[in-house]
Each structure stands twice: as C-alpha cells, then as structure tokens.
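Think of the structure tokens as a kind of shorthand, similar to the way a musician reads notation: each symbol stands for something richer, in this case the local conformation of the backbone. In the example below we present two proteins back to back. Begin with the first one, reading the sequence and then the tokens, and try to describe in your own words what changes along the chain.
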Amino acid sequence: MPRKRGSSSPPSAECQHAASAKHKKVESDVGGSPFNFDTPLSLFESLISPVGVEEFFQEYWEKKPLFLQRSDPGLASYYQSLFKLSDLKALCSEDLEYARDVNVCRCVNGKKKVMNKEGRVNYNHLKKDFDQKKATIQFHQPQRFKDELWRIQERLESFFGALVGSNVYITPKASQGLPPHHDDVEVFILQLEGQKHWRLYSPIAPLAREYSVAPEERIGSPTHDIILKPGDLLYFPRGTIHQADTPADVDHTTHLTLSTYQNMSWGDYLLDIFPGFLFDSMESDINMRAGMPRQLLTNVSVGPEVSTQLSTFLRGLADKLDKGKEELRSTDMKRDFVSSRLPPYSSDNTSIMPTGKMPQLEDLVCIRYKDHVLITVQPGQDEEDETTEMEVFVVHSLKNNRKIHMMGEPEEDDHDHHDHGEDEECPSQRVQGVRFPACHLPALKQLQGAERLLVAGLQLEPDSARLGLVLALWTEGLLEVCSPTEQ
C-alpha cells in the first residue's frame, strides 16, 4: 500500500520539547462524518486538515512528525465511534484468536511481555488481563469488522496507491504496552478515547525497512513529548522511534494507527521491474547475450574488468531508460497490491455484480470503480506455444475478501502488523481479472482514460472485437452503460 518520496531526516529545529513542538489547532463544524469521502484526495485532505496536502508532502512526509491538536467535540465523537473499549465484547463473538486477531502485552523494564493465551479470545479473560494485569490490548486490522474503517482505508488505499493497514491499541491507566521501537511504515495516529502520552525520538535508521526495538540508552532525549486527546492526530515517518503510555489519572486510552508504504521504496520498485527490463534488453542487445568469462563463477574474487563490463551494461540500460526505449513492467508489486487491497466500500455489503443493460455498439460506456482497476502487460500463459506472446491482463480488486485484508501470517513481534506476504499457511487473495490479446491494449487505455466512451469508437477492429471486449468487462462487473448515444 503507500506510499514515499525522498529520504531526508528531521531537521534539528524539530528536536525540541512539547512546549515548542510543531502542532496546529483545528476547528471544524462537523455534520455527520467530518471526512469528505467524495474522492480519495478529499478524504486525505479532511484527515490532515487544516494542513494542506501539498504542504504535508513537502514538509512532513518521510521527513518529520506532525501533531494536529483538535478541540472539536464533534470530531472527537466521530473518532470514538471508529472503535472503543466497549466494542470488544461484541467483537469477541467473531471467533477471534490470540496472536492472529488480538495481542495482549505490556512493557516491563523496557521489554515487551506477551501475555497471550491459547486459541480463541474470551472476553472475560481479556478484560481481566486488562483490568488486573494492566495489559495493553492490540486489535489487528479492525477494518475487517468495522465498516467505517473499511470506508476510510479503502479511500486511503486509492489515494496512496498502496496498502493501508490499521491496529487499535487499548491501554489501561499507568501502563505502557510496547517498549521504544521504530516501524517500517508511515504512521497516522488517531486518538479515539482518553489521553495518551507520546514521546518521539530522532531515527537511528531513517526510513527504516524493518521493525526494531530501540534500547533506552541509545535513543537520547525526545524530540516531541506530547499528550494526544480525542480528535487529535499524530503523523510520523517510518524509522521514527516512539513509545506511548497512559497517564495515571486517565482510566484508559484507545488509539488507532493507520499505516502505509511498507516496502514501497525506489529500491523495492527497482527490484520489481528490473528483471523484466533486463530480460527485454537482452533480447535486443547481442553484447548482453555474449558469454561471460570462463570460470567466473568459480573464481574466489571478481576482477576489475568484470566490474567495468557490468558498469558498461548498467550505463547502457540507464541510457535506454532516459530515451524511453524500453517499457517498464511491474512483475509483483502491482499484482500484490490489487490482490491484497480492500474491495470497494459498499454500505449494504453487496457483492460487485454486472449492473445495468448489456452494452451495445451504440452505447456510451465507462469503467466502474476505476481506482480498483489496473491494466498490466505480461507474457501469455499458453504453455503449448513455444513462442511467448504478450497479453493484456486487466486486474481488479472488486471481489477481494475484506475479512482477510492485511492478515499475513502472525509474527512473534506485534508491531504494526503490516505484513501482506502471501504464505501457504495463511489466507491470501487470488488475482482477479480478465485476459485479452495484446491488440486490445489501445482500446483498454481509451476506456481507462475517458470518463465515458462510445463502444463503436474503440480503437479495435472489427465491431465483433469491440463488443467482445466490453461484454467481457461488463460480465466481470468492471464496466457499465452510461446512457444511449444522443443523435
């Protein structure tokens, strides 16, 4: 999910106490939801208001924390509706399991103590650990059960073009759930109930690629020391060291973490597109198909002439990129995102089915749920054909299973649980889509780029091919007829 541009660390001016920490006051007149769900952009704008989107990405994203202090009862009430302590009792009837759905833990002497039991979660046992043992309850991926979180995160996944996971943390008074640590995701904290005391520290590994505990003796003094109250929002980049506790005079605190941009760096993208780019380049460059020196694989070390030759190849590849001579094809990242993300939000939880009349040549048509549809070009799957032909694969997330969103294999560490790898032992989503011959690509790009388009005007011959294309998309639930052509 996603999604990070740049790699600068927080400037020294941000290294100061809460009395001078960067924050902004926001007042809003809430009528219903304070969020604007019209578009993915409008949703994100309302999430970080009054900070503008351009300002956010220029000043804060991947650079430094942002604390938005609100004083709006309506906004605080809406935040609380997203998830509260009293929701746990009903949710425990959903066959929740320890480690998979819920973690119970406490920070003791700077270390995390996991207090999970075996098997299914019993509410009475869970509440007893919370009340008597001062344990923090971490609820994994609540968007699987809470419709409004599904609505928010589905929009945010469209905005970032990346997966967006979430966790709820409920901590009793005078207690702390996790030791100081940093995460490998961009984090947005929404304070739902009570008050939470947060301390942030300068990164040891800016834009960290993995979760790690940070020993107290290594983290120095906090750059931010703040209290989050209901309706407040806190953002910090991956790699930011942080810890949080509930003050002794607060009964309990509940906050939501929205996390995104795990494994979405330029390096990850290079790893994804480079194999196909290199393969295509070998097809057109005889020098890259020439054999490497004898015994290169068995030599103890590689000589400078090998490094020189590889540098020559890499410079040639860079030149092709600059001149746009090769098409870049994502191999795994694009399909992983589409197959793993949330399906479109539906207030009545209905399945995505073909809608309206069947399209004809004289109809104007448009793509449904355009944010959830991607066009990919890849080698065909005809194993009997010795020559590999390229094909177009229109992939989508309309039929994804919300109940397994972001639920990778449970790990020993219970940090932001943003893992979305597909493992044989854990649930995964299958890529959904429709395959077409490569000659259909211009017409598909037309459909993707237009608000609505006349079927007869598609760049595809003959008319039977045009009809076959739109009928296949309509049957998959990806296309609908907008209105008849006006003569």
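Once you have a description of the first chain, move to the second and do the same.
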Amino acid sequence: MNSEEEFYDAETGLESDDSCEVSFKDALVFDNKVTDSSTTQENGVRERRKTLPAEMISRNNFSVWSILKKCIGMELSKIAMPVVFNEPLSFLQRISEYMEHTHLIHKACTLSDSIDRMQIVAAFAVSAVASQWERTGKPFNPLLGETYELTREEEGYRLISEQVSHHPPVSAFHAESLKQEFEFHGSIYPKLKFWGKSVEAEPKGTMTLELLKHKEAYTWTNPFCCVHNIILGKLWIEQYGTVEIVNHSTGDKCVLNFKPCGMFGKELHKVEGHIQDKSKKKRRVIYGKWTECVYAVDPKVYEAHRKADRKTAGDSKKLKQEHSCEGEEADEMPDVQETVTVIPGSALLWRVSPRPADTAQMYNFTSFAMTLNELEPGMERLLAPTDCRLRPDIRAMENGDIDSASTEKERLEEKQRASRKERSEDEEEWSIRWFQLGTNPHTGAEDWLYTGGYFDRNHTDCPNIY
C-alpha cells in the first residue's frame, strides 16, 4: 500500500425557455441514437441507473484499528487504508453531490427579494451536506490531475473538477448554468484528525455562489463532520459548527448553527439560525434538520413559539455541549428524535430526496450518487482521459472485484510516485490543466479559479495518469 496516501473524507427540472438563446453543442450528452431495447427511455431521455452493478463489499473481516491505533490526535495524512474501507467514488465525484438540489439555485434566481433569495441559498447550503448521512465509506483519493465532469442538461448545469494538488490534497470545482444564470465554485482541502473512537473533518475551503442576473455573490464554508465508532460499534455521522453565508452585494448574512448531538441526542441533526440584513435586523429564522428538511419563519412568530415551549417545559435549561469529537465518554448513536416540529406560518424551503430501497447494500448512496460513476453510451469519446469514470480501481470496486480494485489502486499509486520522482529529477513543475491559483474577488482570499476551456473538448494534452 502507498504510505503517502492521504486518508480523508468529504465533507444533497427546469421549464424550457425558448426565448433564451443558448447553445448546448458543447454540453456532454450521451448517444441519443441508441436503440438497444435494454436501454430504458423516460420522456425521450435515457433513464439513468437506479442501482450499482454489485452490492457493497463486506468490511467485517477487516480492522481499521490496526491501522489507526498509532494516529490518535494526529492529522490523518500519509496513512494507508485498505481499499475495502472505500466507496466506489472519487472525492471529486463526492464533491459533485453538492449539485443534487440545483433546483434551489434556479429557484433563487427567480426571486426578486434579496432576503427571499438568501433563505433559498441557505437551504442549498444545508442540502449540500445531506447526502453524507450514513455515508461512512471513504471516497477514493483523487490522483494529481484527475478530473470529473458532470453535465445535466435537463437540470440546466455542468460541472468540472480537478485535483490541483496532492500534498496537501486540494480539489477544485466549477459549476455553471447552461443558461448563464449562475456559477458555483470552490476548492476543498479537508483536514482530518483521529480521536480514538471518531474521525473529525475540519472544513477548509470556501464555497462561492454567484447569481448572475442579480449580480450577487454568496460565500460560506461547510460545517465540521464527525464519523463516530471508527473502531467498534455502528458508524454514525454528525455535522456541527457555525456556517455564515454572506451576500457580498447586499450585506445580508445568514448564520446557521449545525448543532452537535449533545449528551441525550436531543439536538442530533438540528440546524437553526437566522437571516439578518445589512443593518443587522433579523428578517427570518431558519430551522430544521440537515437530514430531513429546512423551514423559514418570521422571527416574532419563532420567539413566541419558543416562549410557549419554555413554559410547557417548565423553563428547563439546556445543557451546554462541546462541539468537538475529542474527549467523548461514549459514542453510542442516540435514538433519532421526533421529526421537525413545524411552527405555524413557516415556509418549507427544502426537503431531502428519498433514498433507494436498497441503499444500505449500495454504500448508502443516494439516487443521485448512484448515477455518478455510470459510463453512458457515447460518453467515453467526449470525456477527458483523466475523468474518474475511466479510473480502473474505482470501476473494479463498483463491480464488486475487491482484489482487482486493490491491485489497480496500488498500481496507480506507484505510477503517481514514479511520475513525481521523475519530475523532481528533471526539476519540472506539475502543469495544472483547468484551474489556477488566484484571489477570490469576493473574499480577497486565495482560491483556485477555473480558467475555462474544458468544454471545448480539446483533451489531447491531458496527462496519462491511469
């Protein structure tokens, strides 16, 4: 196994507008001329798969403790992990799951009021982490130069991501509307630490959403993520921490508190926060669960409801809980509490999509995740040769061949080491293909920005990484 492998874990339909002149000639579409009777059609479009080629490989005969016992309190870099602890997706594909609820961005684009837009953007930020629930498999670490392309013409967007750094691992992505309505981009480099019973992921990297029609830019960072019971017991995940979404054009801000589970599990999955305008006046209260749904309500209505709850509960005080995975006495997963209690007068902003019936046998993938590694007819001739779908170890694992997946993974890692050594001897720098290090124009911070050109389909100079 490669001693230099980084172990890190990732952090949920449009009406046609014929009046808008948009060319889809460079969008990735599969061969619509396929006439094989086994190809399912839905409204004239090939229906994407609803399951994986093989069920999840059992991890019962493998011990992660033998690997991690010397790493307590350390950042989990340069730790080799058996392929069986992976899920058959690259981290670049995991990033693309932010786009599962792109309909929220489209909705925000149609709204005339900035506070209304902010509450939908807040719902999108929450939805972006929803697919992580029960996803305890580790995505494959992208190879340097690896890419992933996702085009969903029926949902009106396309995305390109690239692994722009290996040490430290940095993944950059850029998504854009096919009708020039929005751009969504960022770079992600999570830091993970092992605390004996759990792994904590500290979010690094800024998400930037630009609503082009409104000339608005929103930025935020993702919450912390903790995977409990790494050694023994049932694995479970919680998200916690404060997420601030800033509208750099209006000065509006949304502050979301992803609550830690707490001693008795009463706060498990809960998200609460508020939207304030540039004068810091509260305009909306946001509440819900990142695993279920998010609502918005008038602050006065929310406060009246809270007072009534306090009276009913006898003014009981809440216990203050730590936000870190460190120092926990027990990692037992609390029983999931009642679903979100809806305050009268609230507006539903977002609800999670139901998962497939066989999700537990399919790495707990969502329906969206199930489609991400599918190699559709006609796609291979359009993809860059560095695309994750063409990566043999991930493909082997998806097909249930753990031995081939392990062998291919080691081969690719050795090839990457040899390439790095050769560049070092020749004093050559790695050439990043689709992104460049620059300055985020909205935050002023260092960021990886898309340079354009990927969808021109000129992939002849892409590196041979597989």
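Compare your description with these statements about the second chain. The longest helix spans residues 402-426.
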